């Protein structure tokens, strides 16, 4: 049963804090294993990788890379309609992400001074793709395509190998359509360690993105600093803001779509209407019966789901900015007018015909989004995650001469006299 | 003595790896302390903060915030010329960084579909400012001004308190000129924990930036995920590419400016000219005698410094891209023409009148730059570090209807039937 709670402004911050501290797990045991795996792959390279694959994935491989033949075979196993849809989704994702491409720029505001910012792609990127039940082709597209758009030269996907020595054919097809350069059969923390430090047969990458289980997430945390990583994602969330005119049937369907991900997935409705609240509660009970993942749904709806009733629409936005949800649906009159009120959210879906699953697969914006309140400080995965900047400084003689005394004074104030000397010597 | 080494292309990657693994320190002891400090401040709030200040900074405070009176007093202690220079530097930094401001955008490529990206500032940011010898006013400006330009509503600076209960007046003046909203007298890991989790008297922030000692750096690593952090900076580095026409006297001065930071600071010359190499070596020996930080210089030049001689200019660029230096000076003919060859560098300084200290203090681009090879995947601190994005999706009824079957098929392929139902119900 989806609980209803009437709340006031004073409670917003506290409720948000409680919700974002869902993840109180400690990872001591996982961390020990992960650190051992990383150290062992750093020391022993390929030998350690093959060894972990045998021990943890239960298969003795003699080649870490997926072959072209295996990819061809995968295309035969996946149905043609699905391949067409994947290509259309890839194209939509590419079109949207091209808008994010940043350009180098320079300014020349003062004579003799040229300041700029040079934008370049990261040269080598690794993408982790989960195996098993979580082998989502959409995730492959969402992680690889932005890197391609950014102009990354070398994209290496790594994904768990199945006990038969093969990789999920849906994954292979999606990776191929997305345009990655090579695929490794290495899952878990050993996959992350291989990408981060390289081995005899695998070149190290400079950044690793992509979701994974606790081992993958903790391994990413440990290699952070030596390579860049994307945010570590928590359970998925949707928050729906609805006023009196929203349709309870659609709200319920969208809450359930989110809740089916896993038991910790969080589905929240914030509404100004008590009537909507009770109708949605009833609809959820009804609709759940016809869905296949009922065990998961029952748990996530009861334990993580909630309907919050607030007394005015502005308070709904204030509360949502505290929650900083991963997905936010705005099912109110004139949703566009409400956009400026939203400060913290991963992706914003406007109106009745923009349900969250549209964004998961198809519309084009990235579905890798900040969870667990991190939309307060981070962004969807994007092209900007695969580009980087260098600042560029040019002064001519006259311009430096004008600044000469000031820079020397500044350097002396910081007691760095070799800094001062470096400027001074230009004019001796 | 600055060593000279003639190297060839095959050695580039190995040398770069050796250089970027300078930091092989383990932090077990520091980590234990830091984790204890964080846990204690999360549990006990202000009481724990006051307690750590007494124990670690040796002063019993009864107020964590710097008062307006203390700031007024600081302005009287700092000389007026320095205040004017600080203001001019702030203005230059602001002007440059305004070019980095990102705007929200939307596209309307297909009828009935509206896709966009909403850009918003992070609401609350914390800036760590080191105390003691490393209390650099330039660091204050470089960290606070980009946050101001981004439109951050609330900027909290935290910095160690001196045993007399005061804060370094240079720091206070710089913070005030930079425009932060408040200053806390909390240094070390306890400063980071206070910003990350908040206490009764201090609001938690969403992102923490700024340099610090090992305790600060490790504390930032531990709170990462709960709040965002900037990159953890290593020792400072300069790399100079010089051809036969460069002036050894200026090259030597610039190498020494970098080397004076600390014993681990790294000063590298890559040149095509053996003559330049030996002349620079001699100049460094000569110039070092007239500088005040001779003890530091002797160590960093001998242990971290190096002159690499390569056989052609293109190889110099190839090598530098492997090194990915924090600062790169290009002292060759027509330096602008070489810009496209640079893939990995924090800041690029072009020609003889753009020495690195110009960028440290004055020109405007940020001096917080990726170190230790991380320019391969990260950028200077910038306005983009204080803005974040939300994607925006709007489909009208017709547009969703067109995509309806495809999205359902995709969702079914991922075995998420509540996702499919959420779309389907729009058309029942």
TrEMBL record, chains A, B:
Note describing how the cofactor binds: Binds 1 zinc ion per subunit.
Essential cofactor(s): Zn(2+)
Keyword Transcription: no
Annotated catalytic residues: 326 (proton acceptor), 327 (proton acceptor)
Pfam families named among the record's database cross-references: Histidinol_dh (PF00815)
Functional pathway: Amino-acid biosynthesis; L-histidine biosynthesis; L-histidine from 5-phospho-alpha-D-ribose 1-diphosphate: step 9/9
Transmembrane segments: none
Binding site for substrate: 236, 258, 261, 327, 360, 414, 419
One GO MF term: histidinol dehydrogenase activity
InterPro entries: Ald_DH/histidinol_DH (IPR016161), Histidinol_DH_CS (IPR001692), Histidinol_DH_monofunct (IPR022695), Hstdl_DH (IPR012131)
Catalytic reaction(s) noted: L-histidinol + 2 NAD(+) + H2O = L-histidine + 2 NADH + 3 H(+)
Enzyme Commission (EC) number: 1.1.1.23
Superkingdom to which the source organism belongs: Bacteria
Keywords: Amino-acid biosynthesis, Histidine biosynthesis, Metal-binding, NAD, Oxidoreductase, Zinc
Major enzyme class: oxidoreductase
Residues binding Zn(2+): 258, 261, 360, 419
HAMAP family recorded: HisD
Function field: Catalyzes the sequential NAD-dependent oxidations of L-histidinol to L-histidinaldehyde and then to L-histidine.
Family of the protein in this entry: Belongs to the histidinol dehydrogenase family.
Protein name per its UniProtKB record: Histidinol dehydrogenase
Gene name for this UniProt entry: hisD
